[in-house]
Amino acid sequence: MTTDLPARMLRLLSLLQTRREWSGTELAERLGVTGRTIRRDIDRLRDLGYPVEGTTGHAGGYRLASGTAMPPLLLDDDEAIATAVALRTAAGNLTGMEETALRALAKLEQVLPARLRTQVAAVQQATATIGWEPRAPRVDPELLGSLAAACRDHESVTFDYTTRHGGCAARRTEPHHLIASGGLWYLLAHDTDKNDWRIYRLDRISNLAPTRHRFTPHPVPGDDPAAYVADKIATAPTRYRAIATVQAPADTVRRRTWALPGRIEPLDENTCTVDCSSNYLPGIAQTLAALDTDYTLDADSHVITYLRQEADRLHRASKPRAGHQAGQGPVEQI
């Protein structure tokens, strides 16, 4: 029996944070106390500002709900280390939430026990991040968190969505999954008005509102949300068309480029096609440059013109300058 009140309260809070809902009987058994004691401890947590809700149903139960303020959380050693490392990774990558991750990391590290702080510091000292110029739209952390909660709780939401053509329309959806790809975040959801799956870019979502209506999730086609979204992105209409026939096996090309798998199709054992089509000409050039083998290209005139201009620029830049002959001086290998 847990007789020490502070220890029991912390244990109770930890249990409430590990599962969406507990029955009073389960909590009493875990802590070795009576149901009456559990009810008193729940009231104490509420007095401290923790939004513990009572649930209906057989024997009733309790769950830690969302409140008006963020209450303290309890993490075990492994969870604390994993959270700190994840925040450090998020702060060093193009997630769109770098500053937010750094603030959260500073708060967490301030209260870490010395033994855990040493482990986290060792990971940070042994790793480094190469920062690239952010090109993707920044992500609103509040929007991301709200959608993640809706996916978890199977709660439908409404929002306004701006299409790629600039139009805006209201949407009512059943959120299923959040997918990060190419510096962008996508929401995979079932549109209740269209009765079909839709993919929404988070940077185009505004005025998100929960409906407090729970739904039974529809099965995702193929049972793989990431693969489904990748396929839809790969087949989405683009402004510029560019198809490369590559003299290399499809598996080899997949390992060498960042083109979506759905855009790489084998022709035979030694040849494949790569759909480099995009709304951005520089992106097409980058994909082609990464092929690292011979290929022929079937592309729009705008693409051909852009590639020729870039090739001319590279050719001019590669010419030896006056007083600097080719092969003169050491060359650093990378």
UniProtKB/TrEMBL annotation:
Keyword Transcription regulation in record: yes
Domain HTH deoR-type: 5-71
UniProt entry keywords in alphabetical sequence: DNA-binding, Transcription, Transcription regulation
Stored PROSITE patterns: HTH_DEOR_1 (PS00894), HTH_DEOR_2 (PS51000), WYL (PS52050)
Annotated stretches, region: Disordered: 315-334
InterPro entries for this protein: CBASS_pafABC_assoc_protein, DeoR_HTH, HTH_11, Tscrpt_reg_HTH_DeoR_CS, WH-like_DNA-bd_sf, WH_DNA-bd_sf, WYL_dom
PANTHER family associated with the record: PROTEIN PAFB (PTHR34580:SF3), PTHR34580
Protein name: YafY family protein
